[in-house]
Amino acid sequence: MRRAIFPGSFDPITLGHVDIINRALPLFDEIIIAIGINTDKNYMFTLEDRKKFIENNYKNEPKIKVTTYSGLTTDYCKQINADFILRGLRNPADFEFEKAIAQTNRKLTQIETVFLLTSANSSFISSSIVRDVYRNGGNISGLVPDSVIQK
Ligand code: ADP
Questions:
Q1: What amino acid positions are annotated as catalytic residues?
Q2: Which ligand 1 atom sits nearest the alpha carbon of residue 88?
Q3: Hey, whose CA ends up nearest to atom 5 of ligand 1?
Q4: Distance (Å, whole) CA 6 – CA 86
Q5: How far apart are CA 143 and CA 139, in angstroms?
Q6: N or C: which end of the chain has fewer CB within 10 A?
Q7: How close is the Cα of 8 to the center of ligand 1, in Å?
Q8: What does the pLDDT read at residue 41?
């Protein structure tokens, strides 16, 4: 069973995340979208909302599960028997950041990180930009899936 985890804050899930998840679906038997709980971070959307947004978007996709976790991502992978970590790359900053984490994870475990390059039409989307637009009353409909808009 090829099980991957896609870890992130998903505050909120965006069309950039959706692009990566949809393109990864044929590569894995199961993708666990794992919302990391970091007590040092201030989130705009509650954990329940962030989870609901993702669940509602994938309610007809049996290969996707949504969970939450805290602590080391690699420990969580071992706990749920996931051999792969899925991440998206948008730009050189993402690459440098992700490289160090993936290499560290590889030093600690056998878990392989699989990177997908962002699609040309969603490379500019980030949760932080979505939060900024939303906070200032802008229209986020072209940036997030319908499950977020419905709220
Ligand atoms: P984190 O706080 O772990 O970066 P995010 O929710 O911001 O969590 O992102 C989770 C993953 O989704 C990361 O691998 C990030 O690079 C990827 N990602 C976010 N936005 C995009 C996008 N527009 N295109 C491709 N990958 C993206």
A1: 17, 41, 90, 127
A2: 26
A3: 8
A4: 5
A5: 9
A6: N
A7: 7
A8: 87
Identify the structural domains of the chain with CATH numbers, from first to last: 3-149 (3.40.50.620)
Cβ of 126 closer than 6 Å to ligand 1, yes or no, is: yes
Angle between helices 92-108 and 73-80 (to 10 degrees): 60
Q: In the predicted model, is pLDDT for residue 151 greater than 80?
A: no
Residue 4 has pLDDT above 90, yes or no: yes
Residue 88 near ligand 1, beta carbon < 6 Å: yes
Mutate to test the pocket of ligand 1, among 90, 101, 121, 122 (most ligand atoms within 8 A of CB): 90
| C-alpha torsion sign, points 69, 13, 88, 133 | negative
How far is residue 111's CA from residue 85's CA, in Å, rounded to a whole number? 7
pLDDT tens track for 104-119: 999 999 999 999 999 9
Phi, psi of 81 (to 5 degrees): 60, 45
Mean residue pLDDT of the chain comes to 96
In eight-state DSSP terms, residue 9 is -
